[in-house]
Amino acid sequence: MSIFRVMSSSSPFGSVLSQDCTLCGVRSHASLCDACHRDLPFRQALGCPRCNAISTDHQVCGACLSDPPHFDDTISAFRYAFPLDRLVQAYKFNANLGLLSLFADALASAIRANTADVKADLVIPLPLAPKRLAERGFNQSALLGANIAKALGIRFEARGMLRVRETPPQTGLNREARLKNVRGAFDCARRLEGRHVAVVDDVMTTGATLSEAAKVLKKAGAARVSAWVVARATKDERDVAVGNDLETVPFHNIQR
Ligand SMILES: [Zn+2]
Ligand SMILES: [Zn+2]
């Protein structure tokens, strides 16, 4: 299935053809069967409004109080827990693009549920370094961003932000080291005076990369920056998430 086929499909899950469920292997009309889809770790609690970490009563979390990120709010569709972590890795590293619609649809629903009164002016994907893009063949965040912008009727700018510096993977680094690692990695060539920009990425772990991106967008004039991510890794899930930049996951069907 070509990228264009996936992106232009009107089906919420990208294909109307019968296929095997990515997780359990039963015949399905979508990349996941209904039972596996129902069991995904959808975000239930609202969490910290700023970074979407799990917090009591939707209060701003301690980390955001002591060291606020540059983005203003975060919306995520899932927790970065099994089997969603494997699905994100399959999408990203094995180019399982049949999962794109599943992620985009879930994130668009979460955004609609969270922001009835706020609408971003512009969707910008977190950019990949040219070398990484050449290796992977696609930017997972750009495909997500394009689908979400289309679903929500918001303007999409694939090159709204550029990656101007290659950065080593964030693997195994704490938030402080990650912040240092991505400093100066992004550039925004145009002015965004007064705009509300939504930055789309697949997974937020510590939020360091998205915070650096938001810093650059605000320097370019953005009044507000929202982080829209498919999955948010909670503290316990970070150990899984940190491996996320490096590994290729050779699997077809995941056994529970
Ligand atoms: Zn299934
Ligand atoms: Zn927070």
Would you kindly provide a written description of the structure presented here, covering whatever features stand out?
With 256 residues, the chain is an alpha/beta fold. Helices cover 33% and strands 15% of the residues. The chain has a 5-stranded parallel β-sheet with strand order 3-9-8-4-5. The protein has a two-stranded antiparallel sheet with strand order 1-2. Helix 5 (100-114) packs across helix 7 and helix 8 crosses helix 9. One zinc ion (ZN) binds at residues 21, 23-24, 26, 32-33, 35-36.
Distance between the termini: 27 Å
Poorly predicted sequence stretches spanning 5 or more consecutive residues: 1-15, 239-256
> Structural class, from helix and strand content?
alpha/beta
Structural shape: globular
Strands, count: 9
The rounded Rg comes to 17 Å
**Helix content range:** 25-40%
